[in-house]
Amino acid sequence: ILGRYSDGPPSPPQSKRARKMKASDG
């Protein structure tokens, strides 16, 4: 969750999904 919030500015749904997947992977 921290990683997702660390993103900062609101990104498009695609970017958010990619980040979410990466965070889950990590």
UniProtKB/TrEMBL annotation:
Q: Which organism is it from?
A: Nymphaea colorata
Q: Specify the taxonomic lineage.
A: Eukaryota, Viridiplantae, Streptophyta, Embryophyta, Tracheophyta
Q: What residue spans carry the Basic residues bias annotation? A: 16-26
Tell me the superkingdom of the source: Eukaryota
Which protein is depicted? Uncharacterized protein
Region Disordered: list its residue ranges: 1-26
